[in-house]
Amino acid sequence: MRETIHLRVNAEALTLIKAFEGFRGKAYRCPAGIWTIGYGHTSMAGPPDVRPGLRMTKGEAAAVLAKDVDAFARDVGALIRVSLNDNQFGALVSFAYNVGVGAFRKSGVLSAVNAGQMEKVPRRLNLWVKAGGRTLPGLVKRRAAEGALFATSPLAHGFAARTLITPAPSEIDEMDEARGLIDVPAGTGMLRSTTNWAAVGQFFATASALVTGAAAKFREATWDAMDFAWFLPEASATNIVIGFAAVATLVWIISERRKKAVEDDV
Questions:
Q1: 46 in any annotated domain
Q2: Is 177 considered catalytic here?
Q3: What is the CATH number of the domain that holds 116?
Q4: Total domains present in the chain
Q5: What is the pTM of this model?
Q6: Mean pLDDT in runs of 10 for the chain (266 residues)?
Q7: Which of 12, 21, 146, 171 is catalytic?
Q8: What is the 3-state secondary structure (H, E, C) of the chain?
């Protein structure tokens, strides 16, 4: 049975989470109607129960955050199948704390990690920057910070002071409104790819417009030199040749788009 990974969520990761969650000393209802306080703490995360009128200091909120993050760390660790350093693990916990463990479980970020493709992780993190179809500047900054932390050696001290781009108060408010509503990056499968289906549609639209004229010219140019199709009706031989060419072209188009999608990690 595989041992669950449970690394320490280091100070760098906690600093990152604090910066992007923002501190609220008084309980408030988030846009989803959930009572929240501190650094994004809700009753669903465990004690203290958040109720109207509840207040806490930054020190108290930091202690609650550490407890909440530790719970996320256990969930994230249960999904990891490779060895990670503290910064890599902390960046993933920050990501999961923001998008939810369920979304993390299904993400390309986790797939890249478990495949040992660590160089792809920052780019895949950068896909999770939209909510309600809009790209949020705060999410762009958070994903960039998580990617930078993931790629930074734990031996390099002072990560937060050197690289952390603190979000503006308006960006924190916007991210708070998007809590639990972050868009999952679209389509990885070939059959679900709108660009592939658009390419297919465009190809056949063009082919149908050209096939009549092309067929006549093709037959006219080749009939005298190649009398190989005498046994078929005149239209059939030409259509068979054009059909094979069409299928080969279509396969090439989809193959090239698939290759591009893999390169772009989408």
A1: yes
A2: no
A3: 1.10.530.40
A4: 2
A5: 0.69
A6: 62 92 93 88 93 96 95 95 95 95 96 97 97 92 94 74 72 81 68 43 47 53 51 53 57 54 47
A7: 21
A8: CCCCCCCCCCHHHHHHHHHHHCCEEEEEECCCCCEEEECCEEHHHCCCCCCCCCECCHHHHHHHHHHHHHHHHHHHHCCCCCCCCHHHHHHHHHHHHHHCHHHHHCCHHHHHHHCCCHHHHHHHHCCCCEECCEECHHHHHHHHHHHHHHHCCCCCCCHHHHHCCCCCHHHHHHHHHCCCCECCCCCCCCCCCHHHHHHHHHHHHHHHHHHHHHHHHHHHHHCCCCCCCCCCCHHHHHHHHHHHHHHHHHHHHHHHHHHHHHHCCC
